[in-house]
Amino acid sequence: MDFNMTEDQQMFVKLAKDFGEKRLAPTITERDHQGIFDEAIIKEMLEMGLGGTYFPEEYGGAGADVLSYIMTVEELAKYDAGVSITLSGTVSLCANPIFEYGTEEQKKKFLTPLCEGTKLGAFGLTEPNAGTDASGQQTVAVKEGDHYILNGSKIFITNAGAADIYIVFAMTDKSQGNHGITAFILEKGMEGFTFGKKEDKLGIHTSQTMELVFQNVKVPAENMLGQEGKGFKIAMQTLDGGRIGVAAQALGIAEAALKDAVEYSKQRVQFGKPICKFQAISFKLADMAMKIEAARNLVYKAAMKKQEKKPYSVDAAMAKCYASDVAMEVAVDAVQIFGGYGYSEEYPVARHLRDAKITQIYEGTNEVQRMVTSGALLR
Amino acid sequence: MDLANYKGVYVIAEQFEGKLRNVSLELLGQGRILADKIGDKVGAVLIGSGVTPLAQELIAHGAHKVYVYDDPRLEQYNTTAYAKVLQHFFEEVKPNVFLVGATNIGRDLGPRVANVLKTGLTADCTGLDVDDDGKTIVWTRPALGGNIMAEIVCRENRPQMGTVRPNVFKKPAADASATGEIINMKAELSDGDFMTKFVELIKMGGGGVKIEEADVIISGGRGMNGSEPFEGMLKELATLLGGAVGASRAAVDAGWIDALHQVGQTGKTVGPKIYVACGISGAIQHLAGMTGSDCIIAINKDPDAPIFQVCDYGIVGDAFEVVPKITEAIKTLRK
Amino acid sequence: MEILVCVKQVPDTAEVKIDPVKHTVIRAGVPNIFNPFDQNALEAALQLKDEQGAKVTLLSMGPPQAVEVLREGLAMGADEAYLLTDRKVGGSDTLATGYCLAQAVRKVAELQGLDHFDIILCGKQAIDGDTAQVGPQIAAELGIPQITYAAHIAVEGEKVTVKQQNEEGYIVTEASFPVLITAVKELNEPRFPTIRGTMKAKRREIPTLSAEDIKVDESRIGLSGSPTNVRKIFTPPQRTQGLILNNEDVAVSVATLMEKLAEQKII
Question: Residue C148 carries which DSSP code?
């Protein structure tokens, strides 16, 4: 078991770090406070090739490993959690299912531009009445000749509006329950496919979250992803992978919060000395660091198992649940260490706290992750 | 090369729109001091069109001789043509030392001339002195981003050349009664000597005092968190004190103010009477540009900011609170 | 269009620290980086490549590890790269360095089957030497025009029009190929290397050139070819700390400051 980073992994992290320092850090406060989804920054990030890290070169990917990708998501999250999830959304939730389940034509048509960075992707499963209970899909797709007609809506979709390619799930046969759900590839601009309101979220303000609205959208049959009725399975497996991305994002947020807290504790002087000299603070910092290290190992192991094509759902669930819980705990502790200043939006820890919360919720709430984990234990 | 044949410490004077650049006059002052130490005399070379009247001002500031190359073709600065002129000067006059102001033009011309004459050039000097041998100039300059200082010598080649930043030395007082020799020169210049063509000058800066010339500079850094203070509270205090607004590299890189205001190793060197650093941490690269200030006042939230190690007065606090209070206090004082 | 970009690997001088006791430079642990102004120069070349089609060749003079910046440049999109590395050129001052690089430029042109490069781009200065001399020295050696402090470059046919930074604003200057241009930060925002570019660059063989390959006159290189030499290096005298005012109520600090400034007749 080699805990060392490979040269490739180091290279990816360095690229992400440079990008974070030069492009994300200088404007994160402004973009976060004003809720700006910066298309130019996303475009530049994708042009670097980060949209296709672990996909094969024949589709425009870099042919690197899943761990390199995960480390990139983690590194970016240290600077901008919103940009980090934008990347995770397009890679894990859009490019990945096309790679795993797409036909050769679909891969050439949709996967290649995602890998090359000319297009951004999104994943539409959640509906107003179908969150954790994803099987309750109310979006319907009715076959008509060589098309499916889609009607319905999706909510809380990351990258919505900006993305060009969407993996959308719809009920093709209600009588089959879970086995009646089918996955489709939709493109922005298809007639009848519009966007609803932009969500005004608590955090990750630099990520764009909107509704998807389908009104008699004509989707060509060749855009069906996988087979009819296999959509639910595709969704669940895709989310397994996406969980590792969210876990990495949570890890990055936690690491940034810890770094800020450490620095502050060295500078803030009370009672004649820097507050890090008080054990109440230094011990808290130690606990934060230990939790992050444990989370990191869970995240990297899940990524490795996916890379090695071993079953990884439980590892991904544990990693996502633990890392996101750690992110919240560490962010809360960081705000506490900053004291009054931590409550001010002039300092970054308030943003870390607002950003951390969503990681416990999306891509499967932590309750779902506990269901998956306990389910495996109790089989 | 018999070094003894090379005589004269010459300032390559720079002029713009009929006015001599201050740095050329500053160099005449320091040039005189050097010349005295090595038993030589200080002079100047003046290149341009219709510039002959400026020769007297050079004499008033200490030049014993002024060699004038006045030619309509030399109205605008042209690297290769000016280098050719100086080559002519070198061959005719056999000077010992060339001092050039490290303006954009000076830093463009210096190395070209140094190469043409196959001699040594030391750039951006902050100190000029004479070696123990009594004849070699010792050029002191910052390197490694300002972290170290190096003393450079050019023992065997002539002319000994150096560029010096504005505001490093003080301008000598003018003596209207001073006399000196004005020698008109003519260099043979062909079209081929003008390898570039001047198209136009686009003036910027919107008026106001230039930081290189200001007696007071109110400077903003990363702590300004945006462009507003540069037009607002910093400009207000600067205007009140008859000075200019400066900036650290971080502020310029963030796009809060343009590069003309940047102070530091890769920006401008300034030496005002008062330098107020607001929300500037005090990285070495910035200090390299302003430690020549007479009085440095630092305002920063972080008590450990390096700038507090080098300032004369420091206030630990939020610049957004402190600066307006200082402005108020000065207004009150003035009443 | 054939473009050559001179690049240098330099220590990150922003990370250099001075030992507070020995007053010496702590070089250990200082990362090496791609000289920032050279990145602007390369970005300008790559933009010309994108817009008008050009071949971009990189040249660096340095120790063997300088090959890292050449790989980074290739990853950003440059086509070819050469490293001039030879102990004999070590210790060169700017005159000798300009000569070595000019000879290397001639050799690289020859290797590329060219008579000359149309445009040579350099950064305004290297952040370790800070002399800003080598670009103009190369131009002088090659006998070509130089345009420094380029904040904007436009190329039409064989003509370049450059906006040069100046104390007054900008001077617009024209020249024809071949021309050497030095870049400032304002010129552009350098692109990031792409992942695929980085991986491809990792696998590339980068040709090295020796002093002999570039046919230098040995009396003009290294220490013997340098008219200037360093007499002494020292750390700058530190200004000592003055009066620091740290009060809960900044109004108190301001009042004390104003008192002192008035006392000292500074205001």
Answer: E
Element (H, E) at C160: strand C159-166
Question: How far, in Å, CA of A40 to CA of B333, rounded?
Answer: 50
d(CA C242, CA C9): 38
Q: What is the mean pLDDT of the segment spanning B73-84? A: 96
Whether residue A222 lies in the annotated active site:
no
Q: How many CB atoms lie within 10 A of CB C143?
A: 10
Q: Which residues of A touch C192 (CB under 8 A)?
A: 15, 18-19, 22, 44, 47-48
Enclosing H/E stretch for A31: helix A28-34
pLDDT, tens only, A119-148: 999 999 999 999 999 888 999 999 999 999
**Amino acid identity, residue B104?**
N
Angle at A372 between CA A370 and CA A373, to 5 degrees: 65
* Measured distance CA(A344)–CA(A351) in Å, rounded: 9
Q: How many CB atoms lie within 10 A of CB C205?
A: 6
Kind and range of the H or E run holding C244: strand C243-245
List the alpha helices (DSSP H) in A225-347: 231-267, 279-307, 313-338
Binning pLDDT at 50, 70 and 90, where does residue B208 land? low
Gap between the Cα atoms of B266 and B258, Å rounded: 14
Tell which of C25, C161, C168 to mutate to test the B interface (max B CBs under 10 Å). C168
Q: Would you write out chain C's pLDDT as a tens digit for each of its 267 residues?
A: 999 999 999 998 877 777 767 667 777 788 899 999 999 999 999 999 999 999 999 999 999 999 999 999 999 999 999 999 999 998 899 999 999 999 999 999 999 999 999 999 999 999 988 899 999 999 999 999 999 999 999 999 999 999 999 888 899 999 999 999 999 988 999 999 999 899 899 999 999 999 999 999 999 999 999 999 999 988 877 777 888 998 888 899 999 999 998 888 777
Q: Which of A75, A228, A255, A363 is catalytic?
A: A363
The DSSP secondary structure of A143-156, one letter per residue, reads EETTEEEEEEEEEE
Structural element, H or E, at residue C32: strand C32-34
Considering only CB atoms, C195 lies closest to which of A18, A22, A49, namely A49
- CA dist., res. C138 & res. A106, Å (int): 53
User: Which of the two residues, A243 and C129, has the higher pLDDT score?
Assistant: A243
Q: Nearest chain A Cα to C76, which residue?
A: A48
Three-state DSSP state, B216: strand
Q: Which of B111, B295, B325 sits opposite C137 (nearest CB)?
A: B111
State the average pLDDT over residues B246-268: 89
Interface mutation vs chain A, best among C196, C244, C246, C247, most A CBs within 10 Å? C196
Which 8-state DSSP code applies to residue B335? -
Q: What is the DSSP letter of A109?
A: I
Q: How many CB atoms lie within 10 A of CB A146?
A: 9
SS3 content of chain B, % helix, strand, coil (to 5): 35, 25, 40
**Alpha-carbon gap, residue A368 to A321, rounded angstroms:** 9
Neighbouring CB atoms inside 10 A of C177's CB total 17
Task: For chain C, give percent helix, strand, coil, nearest 5.
Answer: 35, 30, 35
ipTM score: 0.90
A179 backbone φψ class: left, alpha, beta (φ>0; ψ -120 to 50): alpha
Q: Rounded CA gap, B311 and B281, in Å? A: 11
Report yes or no: A154 and A127 within 8 Å, Cβ to Cβ. Answer: yes
Report the alpha-carbon distance of residue C267 to residue C262 in Å, rounded.
6
Q: What is the pLDDT of residue C28?
A: 78
Strands (E), chain A: 121-124, 140-144, 147-158, 165-171, 181-187, 193-198, 209-220, 224-225, 269-270, 273-274
Cβ–Cβ under 8 Å, residues C262 and B291: no
As given in the structure block, the two tokens for residue A143 are 């076959």
